[in-house]
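Before going further, learn to read the protein records used in this course. A complete example follows; check for yourself that the lines match position by position.
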Amino acid sequence: MQKTLDKFAIGERGVVKAVAGEGKIKRRLFDMGITPGAEIMLRKRAPLGDPLEITVRGYELSLRITEAQCVTMNTADETTAGEAKQ
């Protein structure tokens, strides 16, 4: 199933399918290692929901909700189902 990173539940994992956004935001996400094919796990949400703490490429990173909305993900269920077909 595809959804944006801001819709993930705590502990949920997925693989980046696409990164949207305008110039600076997209570049910032790419510079932080959020690129297509990267695996991400949502670790925590702040008490009011913003920011989010994720694990990507072996390190922890905080993202604003507006940044997380730009990241389209394949959930772990879809990733493993795709691997089973191959």
